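Lab manual, section 2.4: Encoding a predicted structure.

Procedure: take the sequence of the chain (241 residues), apply the prediction step described in section 2.3, and record the output as structure tokens. A sample record is shown.
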Amino acid sequence: MEPGLALKEASPALPLGEAEAAELNDAFERAPPAEILRWAHGAFPEGRLILTSTFGVGGMALIHILAREGIRLPVVFIDTLYHFPETVEHAEAMRDRYGFELRTYRPAPSRKFFEAEHGGRLWERDEEAFHEWTKVAPMRDALTGVLGWVTGRRRDQSPTRAAMPHLELASRVKINPLARWTLDDVWSFIRAENVPYHPLHDLGYASIGDAPLTTPVRPGEHERAGRWRGSARLECGLHGI
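Recorded output:
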């Protein structure tokens, strides 16, 4: 890991201005994720900063760094009702291990309730509507009152993320501490720090989403090739909020 940098503190008036964000993004290109997280923790009012995660390796790296730094952030988990059972079990096990506040948001009390309103196998009939109802709508609820949103996204994950900065400005500030890391960097950190990871990774699932729309990755395929296989889709819509 690189040595830390003394980064400028953000103004308490949020969201950040474009000039300040540009200056910080320049500094963050030389900063390790832990320093970016320390900056974020100090820059946002208490209760206004969250981490979102589905507990893949990037999310687990961030959760581990936060714990190591003594930073307590609520972790938001969007339970679409169609996750693998292992994902839900892993989320709860990591809450117990690391002691963070787990905020779980669902589109309905249960899959039975959801399908009573929208019908079964919605992803086959209208994939856009499926993602809107199971992910985007619950995330909008989760972001109520939030000023800063920490994600585990990286530039090497897809063409839509290739130019992603560490700070993105919109209605809130999105913070991407792992933007510069590669998948190899993440796994090197996971192994070096003995961080627990999702059990489906050992079964060939490199990127894990909803069970009906996620398959294992074949040798030589890209990390996200198992997401929406056979489709041109690269994003579920969450990060367009």
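Check your result against the sample. The beta strands are 49-52, 75-78, 102-105, 148-150, 167-169, 173-175.
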